[in-house]
Every structure is written in structure tokens, then in C-alpha cells.
Specification:
177 residues; 5 helices; O-acetyl-ADP-ribose deacetylase (Regulator of RNase III), contains Macro domain; binds ligand AR6; 7-stranded mixed beta sheet; alpha/beta; Leucine Aminopeptidase, subunit E, domain 1; Macro_dom-like; Macro_dom; 20% strand
Length: 177
């Protein structure tokens, strides 16, 4: 565990649908109507009430975030955000990925949520290079924590061993250096 401005930051290797936190974050697409990867896992584990709420919301622009309840999962809410599709790195991807994390945290604060778990947004189907994505993810979260000092605990839940190692190295460098 790491601590930054009184907020605990944890990295976990595993399945985000199992997390007992106020909100888990979904790496969704613009339609919010489900898909593969972590999005598919969340809709499967949470059940149909999540899709019903997503249909009413009617989509989400890249870099923004929307919220639903978490259905059958142990968390209370799902914050659906949309990361960028990675093309060449010069199409605004970095800012959009940063915004996806930052706006998810802003929404968590609006709902008075204190514990939140993130997957490695955009690093699957959307093809964002893992190391660059982890740098952006940790920077956005730390910027929010530095500014807002509200969230009590952040989890980065990494599905794969390689992403876990990448986050560990980055956070060791940023917070244990
Ligand atoms: N828990 C945590 N992380 C997971 C899980 C899980 N259960 N399952 C996969 N991952 P991706 P993207 C990791 O492709 O790149 C969907 O179809 C996975 O290993 O889920 O943002 C949406 O509908 C990877 O590191 O999301 C969109 O169309 C990370 O989650 C599109 O994929 C993100 O991979 C979004 O693509």
C-alpha cells in the first residue's frame, strides 16, 4: 500500500467485479451498452439492472463519466467512463485518458463516495501502450488527490501480471522514492 496526501493507494491483481468498494470504474464505450473485456465482465456480474440504467443515460463522450448502481456486485456503484482508442499517440489520447480517470473521481466525489477501484482503462481492446497508460492513470489520480483531498482509498485492479508489475514500478518510483 502507498499513501499520498492521506489517501491510500493499492494495487491488486485480480477481477474488479469482486471489489467491495463504494464504486468500481468500468472501461466502457461511447454507447454504454456493454462490450467485451472488463465491460462485459461487469455487466455479467452485475446483472441486467446496469444495462437498463445505461440505456436511460444514453451514451457517454470519450473522457467523461456516468454512474449507475452495481446490481449484484459487492460494490455500491459503477462509474462508467470511456477511454480513448489508441491510434498513434498524437490524436489527443493522453488528455482523454487523463480525463477519464479525473472525471471518474469528480463523479465519485459528487456522490460522496470514498473508496474507488479502477481497471487499466484503454489497455485492452483500445490498445493504449500499458506503460504510458499507467503513467497517465497514476498522474491523474495523484493530481486529483492533491487537489481535492476527499477520496480515502483508491485501488488499481490489474487483471494481468504485466500490468501489475508496471503499476508497482511506477508507484514505487513516485511514492517510495
Ligand atoms: N477486472 C479487471 N480488469 C479486467 C477485467 C476484470 N474482470 N477484465 C479485463 N480486464 P478492455 P479498453 C482488463 O479491453 O481497452 C469493451 O468491449 C484488461 O486486461 O476491457 O478500455 C468496451 O465495451 C485490460 O488491461 O477495455 C469497449 O468497447 C483492461 O481491463 C472497449 O472494450 C482494459 O481492457 C474498451 O477497451
Amino acid at each position: 500500500m502507498y499513501i499520498y496526501n492521506k489517501t491510500k493507494i493499492n494495487i491488486i491483481q485480480g477481477d474488479i467485479t469482486k471489489m467491495e468498494v463504494d464504486a468500481i470504474v468500468n472501461a466502457a464505450n461511447n454507447t454504454l451498452l456493454g462490450g467485451g473485456g472488463v465491460d462485459g465482465a461487469i455487466h455479467r456480474a452485475g446483472g441486467p439492472t446496469i444495462l437498463e440504467q445505461c440505456k436511460k443515460i444514453g451514451g457517454c463522450p470519450t473522457g467523461e463519466a456516468r454512474i449507475t448502481t452495481a446490481g449484484n456486485m459487492p460494490s455500491r456503484y459503477v462509474i462508467h467512463t470511456v477511454g480513448p482508442v489508441y491510434r498513434d499517440g498524437t490524436s489527443g489520447e493522453e488528455k482523454l485518458l487523463y480525463n477519464a480517470y479525473y472525471n471518474s473521481l469528480k463523479l465519485a466525489k459528487e456522490y460522496n463516495l470514498k473508496t474507488i477501484a479502477f481497471p487499466a482503462i484503454s489497455t485492452g481492446v483500445y490498445n493504449y501502450p500499458k506503460l504510458d497508460a499507467a503513467e497517465v492513470a497514476t498522474r491523474a489520480v495523484m493530481d486529483f488527490i492533491a487537489k481535492e483531498n476527499f477520496i480515502e482509498e483508491v485501488y488499481f485492479v490489474l487483471f494481468n501480471q504485466d500490468n501489475y508489475q508496471i503499476y508497482k514500478e511506477i508507484l514505487d518510483k513516485k511514492l517510495n522514492g
